[in-house]
C-alpha cells in the first residue's frame, strides 16, 4: 500500500468532516466518512501483516482512490449549499485524477510505456501534492472568511431582529399610549362639550338677567313715562265727564231754548278729548309693550323699525330711571334725529337693548363726572353741565347712530378691554360687565354692522353704531 496516499486520504477524510462540520449538518455522511477512514486504517494494518510474513501483498492503494472519490462526492454535495467547499473540491479532483492515472499506468500497462516517462509522472504526483495542500490552505482561509461573514450576517440579522422586536415593542407601546390618549381626548371632548353646553345655558341665563337688570333700573323711568299719559287720560276724562254732563243738561232744555251752537261746540270738545285720551292711552300701552319686548327673548325676526322713535323713547326712559335713584342728578339730553330716516329692518328688541345699554352707560358716566366735579369745589366744577346726545344719520351705505356724552371718558387701557365679557368699571354689584359685550355681538354678528368707540379720558365718549342698508 502506498503510505503517502493512505495518509493523505485519511487526512482529507477527517479534515472534510471538520471543514464541512458534517457531524451537525450532514450526520449520515459523517458516519460514512469515519467508516471509510477506519476501513483504510484496517487495510493498512492487514497489508503490513501480510507483507511482513511475505505470504501475500495486498494492493490496497486503489481503495484509497475510491475513498478519495467518495470524499469528493461528499464535498460536491456540500458545495451546493456551502461556497467554501468549492475550493476544497477544486483541490481534490486534480489530485485524485493525477494519482489514479499514474497508479493505473504503472500497475496495469507495460513498463516500456511507464519507464520513459517515469520522471514526468513522479513530478506530476509531486505537483499534485503541492496543489492539493495549497488549495486546501486556501479553502481553509476562505472557510474562515466565510465563517466570519456568516457570523457577521447572523449577528446582523440578530441585531436587526432585536431592533425589529424593540421597534415592534415601541410601536405597540406607542399604539397603546395613543389609544389611551385618544380615549383621554374623547373623554375631555365630552367633558368640554358638556361644559360648553352648561356655559351656553349659563350665558343665556346671564343675558336674561342682564335684560331684567336693565329693565329693573328703568322701573322708575317707566313709571314716569307711563304716568304722563295716564295724567292726560285722567285729566281729559274728567273734562269729558263735565262736557257730557253739560251736553245732557243742554239737551234737557225745551227745543226753543236749546243752543245748537253750544251743543256742537261741546261735542267737538268731547271728540277732541276722546282723541287725546286714545292717543295717550296708546302711548302708555306702547311703553308697556316695548318693555315686555325688552324683557322677552328675541325671536331674531327683522322688522321695519322707526329707529328715531326707538332712540327717543329709550333715551328718556334711561334718564328718568337714573334720576329716580338719585334725585339730585340732573342732566341735559337731546336728540338730533334725521327726519328723512326710513324704517330700517332690524330686530327691534335687540337694537333697543343696545341703545338702552349705551344710554345707561352715558348717563352713568356724566353722573360720575358731575359728582367728581362738585367734590372739587371749583367754580368750573359747579359749572359743569352733564349732557347726553343721540344722533341718527342716513348715509349712502346705511344708518349711523351716535351716542355722545361729556362724562368721565376712558383711558387707553380701558378701551382695549371695554368689549370683553364681564369687564366693567363700575363698583362691585353695580354692573354685570355683559352689557357692551352683548351689544357688540348684537350689532356685529346679529346685524352685520359695526360698533365703534371714540373716547378721551376726562373729556367724554362717543359710541357709533353703523347698520348696513338692507
Automatic annotation (TrEMBL):
CDD domains: HisKA. Its EC number is 2.7.13.3. Residues 221-470 form the Histidine kinase domain. Residues 171-209 form a coiled coil. Keywords: Coiled coil, Kinase, Membrane, Phosphoprotein, Transferase, Transmembrane, Transmembrane helix. It holds the Pfam family HisKA. This is histidine kinase. It comes from Fibrella forsythiae.
Amino acid at each position: 500500500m502506498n503510505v503517502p496516499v493512505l495518509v493523505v486520504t485519511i487526512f482529507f477524510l477527517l479534515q472534510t468532516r471538520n471543514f464541512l462540520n458534517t457531524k451537525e449538518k450532514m450526520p449520515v455522511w459523517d458516519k460514512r466518512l469515519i467508516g471509510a477512514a477506519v476501513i483504510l486504517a484496517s487495510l493498512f494494518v492487514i497489508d503490513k501483516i501480510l507483507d511482513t510474513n511475505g505470504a501475500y501483498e495486498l494492493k490496497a492503494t486503489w481503495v484509497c482512490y475510491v475513498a478519495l472519490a467518495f470524499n469528493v462526492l461528499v464535498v460536491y454535495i456540500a458545495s451546493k449549499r456551502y461556497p467554501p467547499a468549492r475550493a476544497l473540491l477544486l483541490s481534490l479532483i486534480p489530485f485524485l485524477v493525477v494519482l489514479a492515472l499514474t497508479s493505473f499506468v504503472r500497475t496495469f500497462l507495460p513498463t516500456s510505456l511507464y519507464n520513459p516517462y517515469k520522471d514526468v509522472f513522479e513530478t506530476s504526483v509531486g505537483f499534485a501534492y503541492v496543489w492539493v495542500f495549497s488549495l486546501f490552505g486556501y479553502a481553509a482561509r476562505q472557510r474562515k472568511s466565510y465563517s466570519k461573514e456568516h457570523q457577521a450576517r447572523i449577528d446582523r440579522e440578530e441585531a436587526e431582529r432585536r431592533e425589529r422586536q424593540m421597534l415592534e415593542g415601541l410601536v405597540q407601546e406607542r399604539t397603546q399610549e395613543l389609544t389611551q390618549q385618544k380615549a383621554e381626548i374623547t373623554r375631555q371632548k365630552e367633558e368640554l362639550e358638556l361644559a360648553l353646553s352648561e356655559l351656553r345655558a349659563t350665558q343665556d341665563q346671564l343675558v336674561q338677567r342682564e335684560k331684567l337688570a336693565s329693565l329693573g333700573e328703568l322701573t322708575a323711568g317707566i313709571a314716569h313715562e307711563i304716568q304722563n299719559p295716564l295724567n292726560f287720560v285722567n285729566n281729559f276724562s274728567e273734562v269729558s265727564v263735565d262736557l257730557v254732563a253739560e251736553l245732557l243738561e243742554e239737551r234737557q232744555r225745551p227745543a226753543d231754548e236749546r243752543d245748537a251752537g253750544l251743543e256742537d261746540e261741546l261735542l267737538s270738545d268731547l271728540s277732541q278729548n276722546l282723541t287725546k285720551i286714545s292717543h295717550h292711552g296708546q302711548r302708555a300701552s306702547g311703553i308697556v309693550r316695548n318693555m315686555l319686548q325688552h324683557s322677552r327673548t328675541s325671536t331674531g325676526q327683522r322688522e321695519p323699525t322707526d329707529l328715531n322713535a326707538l332712540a327717543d323713547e329709550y333715551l328718556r326712559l334711561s334718564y328718568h330711571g337714573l334720576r329716580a335713584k338719585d334725585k339730585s342728578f340732573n342732566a341735559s339730553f337731546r336728540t338730533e334725529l334725521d327726519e328723512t330716516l326710513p324704517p330700517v329692518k332690524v330686530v327691534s328688541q335687540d337694537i333697543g337693548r343696545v341703545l338702552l345699554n349705551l344710554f345707561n352707560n352715558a348717563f352713568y358716566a356724566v353722573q360720575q363726572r358731575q359728582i367728581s366735579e362738585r367734590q372739587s369745589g371749583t367754580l368750573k366744577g359747579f359749572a359743569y353741565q352733564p349732557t347726553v346726545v343721540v344722533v341718527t344719520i342716513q348715509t349712502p351705505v346705511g344708518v349711523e347712530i351716535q351716542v355722545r356724552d361729556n362724562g368721565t371718558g376712558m383711558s387707553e387701557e380701558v378701551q382695549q378691554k371695554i368689549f370683553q365679557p364681564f369687564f366693567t368699571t363700575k363698583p362691585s354689584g353695580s354692573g354685570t360687565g355683559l352689557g357692551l359685550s352683548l351689544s357688540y355681538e348684537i350689532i356685529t354678528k346679529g346685524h352685520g354692522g359695526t360698533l365703534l368707540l371714540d373716547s378721551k379720558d376726562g373729556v367724554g365718549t362717543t359710541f357709533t353704531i353703523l347698520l348696513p342698508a338692507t
